[in-house]
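Now for a specimen:

…
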Amino acid sequence: MSHPVELLRGALAADPSRPLVTFYDDATGERVELSVKTFDNWVAKTANLLVDGLAAVPSGRVALALPGHWQTAVWLFACWSAGLTVVPVGDGAIPGDADIVAAGPSRLAEAADTTADVVGLSLHALGAPLADCPPGVTDYAVEVRAYGDRFSGGVLDPDAPAVEFADRTLTGPELVAEARALGTPESARVLTTVGFDTPQGILRGLLGPLTSDGSVIICQNLDRSSLERRIAVEHVTSVI
């Protein structure tokens, strides 16, 4: 398997029911667990929204102004499935030349000032829509429900850029090669507090576990006093 999308397909074929992504937000008490199948369904629905709803085409650039969240992981794989280049933003400035911007509530005003198509994510635990959706912004929680949970994308281009960091751009095969080189132990349970706007976050906190039939526990607003108990409850094997 030489592309992140193929890693997900392999996990789906091997055991669709096993947990793949678990998400905690200690500020809200939220816990969400997604199996490989459920995660893949979200990826497919989001990829269909990108292609059919926003007319995204291969090589288009999608800026992700999103925190470390399970929906951010979904968007990464949805973009890669559709042949799009991800531009992780994190806390940095949203690039003015992106074709599409996916933004959380705290970044919507900034995103709406760009010329890109803007998708707003409420990141609400129960899938509620945005409390305040600016004009012209697509409300992800509302719109994504209408799209199918299977995505029929084209042939993955191994030479196409998959992610564009500030200092380097990587293709899908390069991402997988670097993730495999980490040597993540078989069936690892990796707990991460690192956002997906960095190579470490994507490689060690998402793709590395996928290369070894492992899973990831994403923790936002981590309460450090609960860390030891969470490691025990979730059978965590490593923390980044």
